[in-house]
């Protein structure tokens, strides 16, 4: 989890620290090496969401070192806020990144449903999504009220405790008419709309409940506009909405159009395209905060399907901005600006938790290549300033980024924890770094955790299988230290897009083996 203060201090510290540059080794997937086991990576990635669960854990919980936690969340405010996910290595439940995580899990499930099912993981994907959506339904207590956060980063960071032991504040914070949060509300609407499509066949009643909440939230976000971090100061230092709320509202409108087929939502995305930046912002990153590239690709999908010719002019503008992002990733943007790459080939946006940009780029590149191919144009190409790029090139770059995550990098390290033999052993993660509550139920106090566990040099006693850590710097260097939170802390939104990509690559590999 990133704070503004931490970021400033960390950048200064990292400027003088000598990072360990591990020698190059091939962990698989390279020339002459065994291919990566994408099925195992998929299986691992879904275990990670069980490790991040808050609330009363179910009987079929597979991550056994975790226990119940946060069972009184919301009690002080008279609401039930038990459940949901911890965002990273701490014990706070932040609504904005949690909602984005669920949106990306749902998008993964929609796009790659057959591949996920073929790998035997469909039930686990549904469970991961539902753990989040159940919480959002609880948190939406009134049409114009959404509970945004439980706990606060300041008191949480003062202590180093397992979630099962936490004694820090569990104050809950909400947005409403008087204290709006259109960015948070819009992202939650997007998550629920996307998830409703995933559950439509297996649980149609539940899907309708999610869609009802999504439509109410969209109305709330549009009617009472404002940034959530202006209403909830406790969120500003940790998950500030730098991009504002325009991108989330367009994102929500496009997801609701896809989920409902209602023309009014597409009309909204067209009418507000300029004011909210959808057709004016050319962005080279996609994240829990900045949704423009993702929503521009969703709008382009509508264009490629040719269903709404009355909106073609505006959708073409969306497409131009979507292609700016994709061409930037491909290093084909000419003077318009490209995404930097390390010598080892990793897309590099910024020093703090760069892997979130890598995994999201891999997802968007793959999805867009599928949309191009499905559109039936021959050949399926992306038009970049430096020339046309075939859809295959988008998939190749996505696979290269995925393989970098799994170990095809200069350090020879898998940044997917628990995969392979060389992966981060000292994650910045409270629950992982302290002996399991199930193994030793004795209470561990606020500062006791720092004294006895945080400062230890040894490996964490618990492995957070499936977590994708922040990853290496611009020189492909990585320091596996618990206090190096910029590189060793993992976040749910790092792994969420890779659920679909791992499934897709496993499916492609299986087809190749058969042929």
From TrEMBL:
InterPro entries: 6-hairpin_glycosidase_sf, 6hp_glycosidase-like_sf, Glyco_hydro_9, Glyco_hydro_9_His_AS. One of its GO terms (biological process) is cellulose catabolic process. It comes from the Eukaryota. PROSITE patterns: GH9_2. Pfam families: Glyco_hydro_9 (PF00759). Its EC number is 3.2.1.4. Residues 1-27 form the signal peptide. It catalyses: Endohydrolysis of (1->4)-beta-D-glucosidic linkages in cellulose, lichenin and cereal beta-D-glucans. One of its GO terms (molecular function) is cellulase activity. The active site is at 428. Keywords: Carbohydrate metabolism, Cellulose degradation, Glycosidase, Hydrolase, Polysaccharide degradation, Signal. Residues 38-501 form the Glycoside hydrolase family domain. Belongs to the glycosyl hydrolase 9 (cellulase E) family. PANTHER family: ENDO-1,4-BETA-GLUCANASE. This is Endoglucanase. It comes from Triticum aestivum (Wheat).
